[in-house]
Amino acid sequence: xxxxxxxxxxxxxxxxxxxxxxxxxxxxxxxxxxxxxxxxxxxxxxxxxxxxxxxxxxxxxxxxxxxxxxxxxxxxxxxxxxxxxxxxxxxxxxxxxxxxxxxxxxxxxxxxxxxxxxxxxxxxxxxxxxxxxxxxxxxxxxxxxxxxxxxxxxxxxxxxxxxxxxxxxxxxxxxxxxxxxxxxxxxxxx
Length: 190
Hints:
The protein is built from 5 helices and 4 strands; from the N terminus they run E-E-H-H-H-E-H-H-E. By secondary structure, the chain is mainly α. The strands form 2 sheets. The chain has a two-stranded antiparallel ribbon with strand order 1-2.
Protein backbone atom coordinates (compact mmCIF):
# COMPACT_ATOMS: atom_id res chain seq x y z
CA UNK A 1 0.00 0.00 0.00
CA UNK A 2 1.28 3.45 -0.88
CA UNK A 3 1.13 6.02 1.91
CA UNK A 4 1.89 9.63 1.04
CA UNK A 5 1.94 11.71 4.18
CA UNK A 6 4.09 14.46 2.76
CA UNK A 7 3.87 15.43 -0.91
CA UNK A 8 7.10 17.39 -1.22
CA UNK A 9 10.35 15.81 -0.07
CA UNK A 10 12.96 18.28 -1.41
CA UNK A 11 15.08 15.28 -2.50
CA UNK A 12 14.74 16.28 -6.15
CA UNK A 13 15.74 19.90 -5.75
CA UNK A 14 19.12 19.31 -7.41
CA UNK A 15 17.70 17.64 -10.51
CA UNK A 16 17.74 14.00 -9.44
CA UNK A 17 14.98 11.54 -8.63
CA UNK A 18 14.79 8.02 -7.20
CA UNK A 19 13.91 5.04 -9.35
CA UNK A 20 11.80 2.16 -8.05
CA UNK A 21 14.90 0.31 -6.91
CA UNK A 22 16.20 3.33 -4.96
CA UNK A 23 18.90 4.36 -7.44
CA UNK A 24 19.17 8.13 -7.98
CA UNK A 25 19.27 9.40 -11.55
CA UNK A 26 19.00 12.71 -13.37
CA UNK A 27 15.42 13.82 -13.94
CA UNK A 28 16.25 14.17 -17.63
CA UNK A 29 17.43 10.55 -17.98
CA UNK A 30 15.92 8.37 -20.70
CA UNK A 31 14.22 6.16 -18.13
CA UNK A 32 12.57 9.09 -16.35
CA UNK A 33 11.54 10.58 -19.71
CA UNK A 34 9.97 7.25 -20.71
CA UNK A 35 7.90 6.74 -17.57
CA UNK A 36 7.17 10.45 -17.31
CA UNK A 37 5.64 10.35 -20.77
CA UNK A 38 3.59 7.31 -19.73
CA UNK A 39 2.27 9.49 -16.90
CA UNK A 40 1.52 12.24 -19.42
CA UNK A 41 -0.39 9.68 -21.52
CA UNK A 42 -2.41 8.80 -18.43
CA UNK A 43 -3.31 12.47 -17.94
CA UNK A 44 -4.58 12.68 -21.53
CA UNK A 45 -6.73 9.61 -20.89
CA UNK A 46 -8.17 11.39 -17.86
CA UNK A 47 -9.17 14.28 -20.13
CA UNK A 48 -10.68 11.90 -22.67
CA UNK A 49 -12.79 10.29 -19.95
CA UNK A 50 -14.58 13.62 -19.51
CA UNK A 51 -16.27 12.81 -22.84
CA UNK A 52 -16.71 9.02 -22.50
CA UNK A 53 -19.25 6.76 -20.85
CA UNK A 54 -20.36 3.16 -20.69
CA UNK A 55 -18.06 0.41 -21.91
CA UNK A 56 -15.56 2.83 -23.42
CA UNK A 57 -15.17 4.63 -20.09
CA UNK A 58 -14.68 1.29 -18.33
CA UNK A 59 -11.97 0.37 -20.84
CA UNK A 60 -10.29 3.76 -20.43
CA UNK A 61 -10.31 3.26 -16.65
CA UNK A 62 -8.56 -0.08 -17.13
CA UNK A 63 -6.01 1.60 -19.40
CA UNK A 64 -5.32 4.22 -16.74
CA UNK A 65 -4.57 1.48 -14.23
CA UNK A 66 -2.40 -0.30 -16.80
CA UNK A 67 -0.47 2.93 -17.36
CA UNK A 68 0.33 3.10 -13.65
CA UNK A 69 1.52 -0.52 -13.88
CA UNK A 70 3.62 0.47 -16.88
CA UNK A 71 5.14 3.42 -15.04
CA UNK A 72 5.99 1.13 -12.13
CA UNK A 73 7.61 -1.31 -14.56
CA UNK A 74 9.68 1.35 -16.34
CA UNK A 75 10.83 3.03 -13.12
CA UNK A 76 12.38 -0.22 -11.91
CA UNK A 77 15.52 -1.18 -13.90
CA UNK A 78 17.49 -4.39 -13.60
CA UNK A 79 14.84 -6.95 -14.56
CA UNK A 80 17.49 -9.64 -14.21
CA UNK A 81 17.68 -8.81 -10.48
CA UNK A 82 13.89 -9.20 -9.97
CA UNK A 83 14.33 -12.63 -8.38
CA UNK A 84 16.55 -11.09 -5.69
CA UNK A 85 14.14 -8.25 -4.87
CA UNK A 86 12.51 -8.05 -1.46
CA UNK A 87 9.12 -8.13 -3.21
CA UNK A 88 8.22 -8.97 -6.78
CA UNK A 89 8.35 -5.79 -8.90
CA UNK A 90 5.25 -4.99 -10.91
CA UNK A 91 5.84 -5.86 -14.58
CA UNK A 92 3.60 -5.54 -17.63
CA UNK A 93 2.36 -8.85 -19.01
CA UNK A 94 1.51 -10.24 -22.41
CA UNK A 95 -2.03 -10.72 -21.03
CA UNK A 96 -2.46 -6.94 -20.83
CA UNK A 97 -1.31 -6.67 -24.46
CA UNK A 98 -3.72 -9.45 -25.49
CA UNK A 99 -6.63 -7.64 -23.79
CA UNK A 100 -5.93 -4.51 -25.85
CA UNK A 101 -5.75 -6.60 -29.03
CA UNK A 102 -9.10 -8.23 -28.28
CA UNK A 103 -10.70 -4.84 -27.59
CA UNK A 104 -9.27 -3.42 -30.82
CA UNK A 105 -10.68 -6.36 -32.78
CA UNK A 106 -14.17 -5.86 -31.30
CA UNK A 107 -14.11 -2.10 -31.95
CA UNK A 108 -12.74 -2.53 -35.45
CA UNK A 109 -15.62 -4.85 -36.44
CA UNK A 110 -17.94 -1.81 -36.28
CA UNK A 111 -15.85 0.21 -38.72
CA UNK A 112 -15.60 0.34 -42.49
CA UNK A 113 -12.03 -0.04 -43.80
CA UNK A 114 -10.16 3.23 -44.22
CA UNK A 115 -9.64 4.45 -47.78
CA UNK A 116 -7.82 7.62 -46.72
CA UNK A 117 -5.72 8.83 -43.84
CA UNK A 118 -7.76 10.72 -41.29
CA UNK A 119 -7.06 13.96 -39.49
CA UNK A 120 -7.30 14.19 -35.71
CA UNK A 121 -10.69 15.68 -34.97
CA UNK A 122 -14.38 15.28 -35.42
CA UNK A 123 -16.05 14.87 -32.05
CA UNK A 124 -14.45 16.09 -28.83
CA UNK A 125 -13.87 12.49 -27.75
CA UNK A 126 -12.29 11.57 -31.09
CA UNK A 127 -9.93 14.54 -30.85
CA UNK A 128 -8.97 13.47 -27.31
CA UNK A 129 -8.36 9.89 -28.48
CA UNK A 130 -5.95 11.21 -31.11
CA UNK A 131 -4.13 13.26 -28.47
CA UNK A 132 -3.87 10.09 -26.36
CA UNK A 133 -2.56 8.25 -29.43
CA UNK A 134 0.19 10.75 -30.17
CA UNK A 135 1.37 11.04 -26.57
CA UNK A 136 1.41 7.24 -26.20
CA UNK A 137 3.45 7.03 -29.42
CA UNK A 138 6.00 9.40 -27.87
CA UNK A 139 6.11 7.20 -24.75
CA UNK A 140 6.69 4.21 -27.02
CA UNK A 141 9.53 5.95 -28.89
CA UNK A 142 11.21 6.88 -25.62
CA UNK A 143 10.81 3.34 -24.25
CA UNK A 144 12.29 1.86 -27.42
CA UNK A 145 15.19 4.32 -27.22
CA UNK A 146 15.70 3.35 -23.58
CA UNK A 147 15.74 -0.33 -24.58
CA UNK A 148 18.79 0.31 -26.78
CA UNK A 149 20.90 1.20 -23.73
CA UNK A 150 19.15 -0.49 -20.79
CA UNK A 151 16.94 -3.49 -20.18
CA UNK A 152 13.23 -2.83 -20.74
CA UNK A 153 10.44 -5.36 -20.34
CA UNK A 154 9.41 -6.30 -23.92
CA UNK A 155 5.75 -6.48 -22.83
CA UNK A 156 5.95 -2.79 -21.84
CA UNK A 157 6.97 -1.77 -25.36
CA UNK A 158 4.36 -4.06 -26.93
CA UNK A 159 1.68 -2.58 -24.69
CA UNK A 160 2.52 0.97 -25.81
CA UNK A 161 2.51 -0.08 -29.45
CA UNK A 162 -0.96 -1.67 -29.15
CA UNK A 163 -2.22 1.19 -27.00
CA UNK A 164 -1.71 3.79 -29.71
CA UNK A 165 -3.59 1.51 -32.13
CA UNK A 166 -6.35 1.17 -29.53
CA UNK A 167 -6.67 4.96 -29.29
CA UNK A 168 -6.77 5.27 -33.09
CA UNK A 169 -9.63 2.78 -33.42
CA UNK A 170 -11.47 4.26 -30.42
CA UNK A 171 -11.16 7.70 -32.04
CA UNK A 172 -12.84 6.38 -35.16
CA UNK A 173 -15.64 4.87 -33.06
CA UNK A 174 -16.10 8.23 -31.36
CA UNK A 175 -16.75 9.73 -34.80
CA UNK A 176 -20.02 7.83 -35.27
CA UNK A 177 -18.24 4.58 -36.06
CA UNK A 178 -16.00 6.32 -38.57
CA UNK A 179 -18.82 8.02 -40.48
CA UNK A 180 -17.71 11.44 -39.21
CA UNK A 181 -13.97 10.89 -39.60
CA UNK A 182 -12.19 13.95 -40.95
CA UNK A 183 -10.44 12.75 -44.09
CA UNK A 184 -7.08 14.02 -45.25
CA UNK A 185 -7.20 15.58 -48.70
CA UNK A 186 -3.65 15.46 -50.07
CA UNK A 187 -2.52 18.82 -51.48
CA UNK A 188 -5.88 20.45 -50.76
CA UNK A 189 -4.39 23.85 -50.03
CA UNK A 190 -1.80 24.16 -52.80
